[in-house]
Amino acid sequence: MEPAEIIPHSGGVIGASWLMIALPLLGAAILLLGGRRTNAWGHYLGVLMSLGSFVVAVLAFLQLAGGRYSIRLFDFIPGIADISLLVDPLSISFCLLITGVGSLIHIYSIGYMSHDPDRRRFFAYLNLFVAAMLLLVLSSNYVGLFIGWEGVGLASYLLIGFWQFKPTAAAAAKKAFIVNRVGDFGLLVGIFLMWTTFGSLAFGDISGKVGEASQGTLTAIGLLLLLGACGKSAQLPLQSWLLDAMEGPTPVSALIHAATMVTAGVYLVVRSGFIFEGAPTAQLVVTIVGVATLLAGAIIGCAKDDIKKGLAGSTMSQIGYMMLGAGLGPAGYAFAIGHLITHGFFKANMFLGAGSVMHGMNDEVNMRKYGGLFSVMKVTAVTFIIGYLAIIGFPLLSGYFTKDGIIETAMHHNQILGWLAVAGAGLTGFYMSRMVFMTFFGKRRWDSEAHPHESPAVMTVPLIILSIGSIFLGGYLVLSNRLMLFLAPAVGRPEELPVFHWNSVAGLATLALVAVGAVLAWFKYGKAEVPEVAPRGSFVTVFARRDLYGDALNEALLMRPGQWLTRIAVFFDNRGIDGLVNGLAATIGGSSGRLRRLQTGFARTYALSILFGAAVLAGALLLVGNL
Amino acid sequence: MTTEYLVLSALLFAIGALGVLIRRNAIVVFMCVELMLNACNLAFVTFARMHGNLDGQIIAFFVMVVAAAEVVIGLAIIVTIFRTRRSASVDDANLLKY
Amino acid sequence: MGETITFWVLAVVSVGAALGMIFSRKAVYSALLLGGVMLCLAVLYAVQEAPFLAAVQIIVYTGAIMMLFLFVLMLVGVDSADSLVETLRGQRVWAGLAGIGFAVLVILAIGNALFVPEPAGLAAATEQAGGNVQALARLVFTRYVFAFEVTSALLITAALGAMVLAHRERLEPKATQKDMARARFAEGDPSPLPAPGTYARNNAIDMPALLPDGSVSELSVNRHIARYDVERGHLPDDPKLAEALKHAVEEEPVTERSHRHEQASSQETDSQAEVTK
């Protein structure tokens, strides 16, 4: 089934959907421009603006009823692009996720950041992020999308480096920014290519004209868009920044680097489905990238002792699943988006849980210093374990339905991809279980000054709400294909609706592998003693611990040649260009210094030269007269 | 006959120029300049006679007027310099140099 | 024939006077020799049918301008003879070369020029107006009237400029006799300078005085008189006095007293000098 027509619309709640963007933007402006005057109430304003956006999103969702509406706001680049919003099932799904989870994380942050002197600035950046992210998903053309895309990149940079006094945080922010530039470059070139090919940048126009473009052009556009998606979503080969991005405050990791921003790549691929469906090669590359990343993320997650980095590896892996789904065409879109939404819930849930644990453990992130925390922080532990069960795909919880959907679809599409995805699920079972056992069970390995305690209600209530979503959302979205039918007007759907089988081969294999992984983790980290200092481990462990040598690879392939190039350029500049210029200047300066001596200050010397001149002139006249 | 006048004029001019170059006393230098002006005047008067045209004499007349004005100002400058530096030597006023 | 004789006489005289002017050590001689050159030129003008210019030459140049030169020479110091030792290396040689070369080249040019063998003469030009002066006046007030009027502006500007340049601004009230007396007492030695010859065997003004304690007072002799004596060897027999005279000549009078006297006379000059600094 093809996507529905886009209808221009104004008025009503949908016509006012620009408020979704405007409210948090206003909040950010007030908080940033107001400065210290807003310190006292700044965080409440931030929460209020985010909640206001959520309310608008809910009302728009209720009014939408499967339509696709465009709302034109103003001309941006006359003749090329205007700023207009596209409210359709796909964008409204994202809006609900962003504003909903975003609001919960805002509330949580009131408690988490209560001791930070810069809390107001933190909320300003969070609001800025929400506004940019909403612009990204709501825009009806690639120009608006790109503005939002850069906006979230900026917010991400600001928030990763929020604690600038930590050199590691500043470096991580720079790294994220630079790696994202590579992806943004790809996206930008892709947009240029679309402009030259189709003469328009609006989603509706391009999807209508896809047939006019050649296969090669579509593949090129698709690969360039994929490059952009890889940068934003930390997919191979641009994955290296996400693990370092955990230097930011934990709510940031939860909101930006788990639930929303990193999924922008998936959104881009799904939104540009019309391109990818015309370019099977690009689609294949998307699935390959997805599978490679889901395995790489899972392997990294197995070896990390830092709880946030472990979760970051897991995020990479789960986005790999979404990418895989997004590369499978209309059959996979709904599962990809579904997994994206459920992942938004359970991963935010676990990140916030990790933040709650750190809050109680003096900001300790090393899981080898945890252990036995279940008894002291019951709410955190229970919600975290719900998230854990959801992510490993425990039957009937959210992840079970959405991840299984992706695996099943992949299996239909390509057996190899499918089985690799199953293997990834097994790894997920292992590393998530390891995390839970190391943190909440086993012997207490706390530092002497650690006094773990449960976090305040402002932090636990969002956890509870998110864990409820983690339990039920997946089933609600996938059973009877609710999400697929809802999204169909925007992205289309397969002719034959998938039917959920609990006893499919892939599903059972997945469950079995997850169980094996969990049991292995239990034997290694639950039952056995966990050493407080990480053992050296086999070369596989070291390989995973070093992020699969991604940084080393980047360094060897890009940084060192770059440095050499710079050195050559600097050398050339110093010796060649500067040498030439300075040499010229020195020559002129030196000769001027010598010529200067002619100015003796004696009027008679000058008069002598004048008389000589007069004599020479007289001689010249004489010669000319004789000729 | 007029050629001799012109030669005399050239000789006097060259002598004046030589004086400007070799004397250090500003007043004497100034006198040498006057000598050069007079040499020019002689040439003008000679030309007037040679061509039967009074314009040469007129120009000599104007040269005299300008010379008078110039002498007044020049001597005032010399007096002022002498007053501050206690010297009328043109070589002593050599601060404007490299 | 008469003109030829006149020309050659005056030419020889004027070139000689000009050379004398540039080679004489004393500026006053230079000025007088320049006057001689100008007079010669005035006669040559008269010979060349320019009686008006001859008169103006004598009145303006020899009369006014030369007088001005002499005034300034007196102001600057007439007695000092200039040293003719060249201080700039090579200046004299090169100046000579350039001067002679220039003269030779110009004379060659004059020799080369194709002149009419006999000058046209000014009879035709002056006849109509009724004389040289009338003819010049006609030209000055007709064809050259603008230049003539501009000349008046030039002369006024020159007069004003000379006044401005020579004017000395008084920066502090003029010292009255009272002020000077107060200053003298403030220095602690209010008595006048010792008179020459007093208390001595001799009362000539070039003889230093003996102070009551028998020592010789260098202050009592005018420095210029002492110099005169020293230069001509008119020294007293007494070696003590002769020594004092030589001493007075060699050393600048730096005692407070003489300094003060000099200062009183040149106070305005100094204030002007400070301004210039």
UniProtKB/TrEMBL annotation, chain A:
Principal place of residence: membrane
Gene Ontology CC annotation, any one: membrane
Ranges where the NADH-Ubiquinone oxidoreductase (complex I) chain 5 N-terminal domain occurs: 82-123
UniProt superkingdom: Bacteria
Localization in the cell: Endomembrane system; Membrane
Entries under InterPro entries matching the protein: NADHpl_OxRdtase_5_subgr, ND/Mrp_TM, NU5C-like, Proton_antipo_N
Transmembrane segments: 12-33, 45-66, 86-110, 122-140, 185-207, 213-231, 252-270, 282-303, 319-338, 373-396, 416-437, 457-479, 499-523, 606-625
A Pfam family reported for this protein in Swiss-Prot or TrEMBL: Proton_antipo_M
GO BP terms: ATP synthesis coupled electron transport; electron transport coupled proton transport
Keyword ATP-binding: no
Annotated NADH:quinone oxidoreductase/Mrp antiporter transmembrane domain residues: 139-428
Keywords (A to Z) from UniProt: Membrane, Transmembrane, Transmembrane helix
Name of the protein described by the UniProt record: NADH-quinone oxidoreductase subunit L
UniProt source species: Nonomuraea dietziae
Automatic annotation (TrEMBL), chain B:
Pfam families in alphabetical order: Oxidored_q2
Coiled coil regions, renumbered to chain: none
Catalytic reactions of this protein: a quinone + NADH + 5 H(+)(in) = a quinol + NAD(+) + 4 H(+)(out)
Localization, UniProt: Cell membrane; Membrane
Membrane topology: Multi-pass membrane protein
GO cellular component term, pick one: plasma membrane
Gene3D superfamilies: 1.10.287.3510
Keyword terms, alphabetized: Cell membrane, Membrane, NAD, Quinone, Translocase, Transmembrane, Transmembrane helix, Transport
Spans traversing the lipid bilayer: 6-22, 27-47, 59-82
Name of the top EC class for this enzyme: translocase
InterPro entries the record matches: NADH_UbQ_OxRdtase_chain4L/K, NUOK/Mnh_C1-like
Presence of keyword Membrane: yes
Record GO biological process: ATP synthesis coupled electron transport
EC number: 7.1.1.-
Organism domain of life: Bacteria
GO terms for MF: NADH dehydrogenase (quinone) (non-electrogenic) activity; quinone binding
PANTHER family according to UniProt: NADH DEHYDROGENASE SUBUNIT 4L-RELATED (PTHR11434:SF21), NADH-UBIQUINONE OXIDOREDUCTASE SUBUNIT ND4L (PTHR11434)
Free-text function comment from the UniProt entry: NDH-1 shuttles electrons from NADH, via FMN and iron-sulfur (Fe-S) centers, to quinones in the respiratory chain. The immediate electron acceptor for the enzyme in this species is believed to be a menaquinone. Couples the redox reaction to proton translocation (for every two electrons transferred, four hydrogen ions are translocated across the cytoplasmic membrane), and thus conserves the redox energy in a proton gradient.
HAMAP family (UniProt xref): NDH1_NuoK
Protein family per UniProt: Belongs to the complex I subunit 4L family.
Subunit structure: NDH-1 is composed of 14 different subunits. Subunits NuoA, H, J, K, L, M, N constitute the membrane sector of the complex.
Name of the protein in its database record: NADH-quinone oxidoreductase subunit K
Taxonomic placement: Bacteria, Bacillati, Actinomycetota, Actinomycetes, Streptosporangiales
TrEMBL record, chain C:
Domain of life: Bacteria
Keyword NAD included in the entry's annotation: yes
Catalytic reaction annotation: a quinone + NADH + 5 H(+)(in) = a quinol + NAD(+) + 4 H(+)(out)
Topology of the protein relative to the lipid bilayer: Multi-pass membrane protein
Region span, Disordered: 236-277
MF (Gene Ontology): NADH dehydrogenase (ubiquinone) activity; quinone binding
Protein name: NADH-quinone oxidoreductase subunit J
Source organism (scientific name): Nonomuraea dietziae
